[in-house]
Amino acid sequence: MNLKNLFERKPDSYSVHYEEQQAASAFADHLLTLLPSPGSCPIVFTFIGTDRSTGDSLGPLIGTLLEEKNLGHFHTYGTLQNPVHAVNLVEKLSLIQKQHKNPFIVGADACLGRLKSVGNIQVGKGPVKPGAGVKKELPEVGDAHITGIVNVSGFMEFFVLQNTRLHLVMSMARVIAEGIAEASVRYSASAILQDLHQSDNGIQVNTKKQAIMQPNHLFKEDIES
After folding, report:
1. Keywords on this record (predicted)?
2. pLDDT tens digit string along 30-68?
3. Which architecture, in CATH terms, is 3-194?
């Protein structure tokens, strides 16, 4: 696996419709370009939302779908059972900072947008802004963001979120969860390759040291004899 290609920088923001072929893999490709190199810091996904609103359940649905998967180097917060939402957001962010040293946080949330953009999944640099669609003042979350446009903005946003089709939200959640799971496998594989590369370098360095030291040792014995 070519580590350079795996983490090759692409545009800061990327959008793919959940019905596109290979949407999950394309999502994973761009997500990986945003992440720091393996081993540099913990990677934490924070899925924001609540199951009390159909449109706002995207985040906890993703977290629940990922709950039983082995995500290797990725940590996740926010499920249907234990959601991260407006009421506990500050508390959960504080907990994440306590449990992980200098984490790289990816915030994920549902959002509203233009009619032609409904169904689009966006991933990019910078934080997600939870509550913006319904005019709530909440902390921004993340060094990178994932958003899914689940319905149309512009009029009675809270009502629109409440009446969003669950089928759409669930379909988008599956694509995002598949993309994160694929990114996890590739990220973990690159971490293993990086460790092997470092080990190989260490062996080469030790071999060179021995080669340098060995003639000196022999020369010393020759003098003593």
Report:
1. Hydrolase, Protease
2. 999 999 999 899 999 999 999 999 999 999 999 999 998
3. 3-Layer(aba) Sandwich (3.40)
User: How many Cα atoms sit within 13 Å of 111 on the Cβ side?
Assistant: 19
Q: Among all chains, which residue has been given the structure tokens 């957001």?
A: 89
pTM for this predicted structure: 0.82
**Structure tokens given for 223:** 């003098």
pLDDT tens digits along 75-93: 999 999 999 999 999 999 9
User: Is the per-residue pLDDT at 178 higher than 90?
Assistant: yes
Paired tokens of 140: 């921004």
Are 163 and 51 in contact by the 8 Å Cβ rule? The answer is: no
- Identify the CA nearest to 119 among candidates 165, 179, 59, 64: 165
Sign of the C-alpha dihedral, residues 202, 208, 210, 212?
negative
Per residue, the 3-state secondary structure of the chain, as one string, reads CCHHHHCCCCCCEEEEECCCCCHHHHHHHHHHHHCCCCCCCCEEEEEECCCCCCHHHHHHHHHHHHCCCCCCCEEEECCCCCCECCCCHHHHHHHHHHHCCCCEEEEEEEEEECHHHCCEEEEEECCECCCHHHCCCCCCECCEEEEEEEEECCCCHHHHHHCCCHHHHHHHHHHHHHHHHHHHHHHHHHHHHHHHHHHHHHHHHHHHHHHHHHHHHHHHHHHHC
- Work out whether strand 104-113 and strand 43-47 pair parallel, antiparallel, or are unpaired: parallel
The CA distance from 118 to 35, in Å, is: 26
Nearest CA among 102, 153, 116 for reference residue 132: 153
